[in-house]
Amino acid sequence: MSVPPLCSSRLVASLIFALCVACDDSELPTVEGQHIDYRWEPQLTPCGGAGAALDEAVPWFGAQLGLAESRYPKSSYSWISDNTFEERHGTLDYEGIAYRGRADGRSPNIIHEIAHLVDGRWRRQGPRFFVEGLAVALDPRHSADLLSPRIDPTPYIDGPLPDDLSYYSAAGSIVTYLLGRFGPGRFREFTEKLSTRASGEEIRAAFAAVYDEDLDDLIADFLVASECPEDALPLPQPLSCGAPRVPWIDAERWAYARPIRCEDDDVLGGHGNDRDSASIYRTIEIPEDGDYTIALYGDRDVRLTLGSCGPCPWLNELHSLNDGQREEVWLPAGLHMIVLSTKATSIALAGVTVTPVHE
Ligand SMILES: [Zn+2]
User: Fold this and answer.
1) What's the CA gap between 117 and 113, in Å, rounded?
2) 68: CA distance to ligand 1 center in Å?
3) Which of 53-57, 207-211, 346-350 has the lowest mean pLDDT?
């Protein structure tokens, strides 16, 4: 009897050591990308832009972290069924796993795992809290609609971490703040001083050495800050902030309407393995701070998410609408992401309008 090859050394989405019964996915259907070869099991149906989106995520995240292009990963992502995932990784506790420079996902587009792959080329990785924190910061929608909530990370810094994923939001929250306030370089330096099992005391000492600030004071400021500092960086930014910008029709009206067809080459998502989702990303430039009416027209199951791509995401509100809804909201000037989501198994019509409110 032969022993299956070990196929995990450093798991970034899981601490388990998995036995891989079929590590080589090169026989699967594949869309070759510049950075990510996208593969899927034949019973699954990815949408037309699923592979391209993950491929684009590599330079998008790499540039934000200041990673040299020559260091970008050339890697693969396999969308596999729950059965295959469990056979490989011995668990269904995770939606995806990045390991040894490749990723397996139970759903078609786990951008979070691509963030791990880029991170794996960027720094020597320290405590799990900050490894997951960076992936959540770069892909906030994976763990929650987390662009703005501020969560106290102190209990997790003092550890131990819970076995479940309940610390992801707190981790993404503080890492978002550290990146936006101080940039990626110091974050890397700070976390590289730490071992995987660093204690709260060691984390505080490394933080003081690199940031020249007391971590507990900084956390206290973070939890109550209401102003965006002038020198805040426009970091981190989700992949949707890199989407094509739709121009205004005129000064009074912005509109975007289309059918969302899974097979279109700018649609993320897919159906199969009990997953059924299709999304498109666009951006809109908001000309000035003020009140705007946003409205979503469309078929049932269409959802809109709109959020700022500007600095200080911890202060920005994320707006979510279902079909037929309209809402008056305050928006800061600058680029905003638009995410339209529906099911991949039906063709949905979606239309969004944005109009300034005049008193
Ligand atoms: Zn992760």
Assistant:
1) 6
2) 22
3) 346-350
Supply the DSSP symbol for 192. H
- In terms of Cβ atoms closer than 10 Å to its own Cβ (0-12, 13-18, 19+), residue 87 is middle
Domain architecture of the chain: domains with CATH:
30-224 (1.10.390), 239-356 (2.60.120.380)
- Residue 117 is predicted with a pLDDT of 97
Å from CA of 117 to ligand 1 middle: 10
Rounded distance from Cα 105 to ligand 1 centre (Å): 11
pLDDT tens-digit map of 133-174: 999 999 987 554 555 578 899 999 998 998 888 899 899 999
Phi first, then psi: give them for residue 157, nearest 5 degrees. -65, -35
Task: Dump pLDDT digits (tens) for 244-283.
Answer: 999 999 999 999 999 999 999 999 999 999 999 999 999 9
| CB count in 10 Å sphere of residue 339 | 22
User: Of 92, 158, 118, whose CA–CA distance to 239 is shortest?
Assistant: 118
| Residues around the ion ligand 1 (C-beta < 5 A) | 13, 132, 135
For residues 45-65, b (16+ Cβ closer than 10 Å) or e, as one string?
A: bbbbbbbbbbbbbbbbbbebb
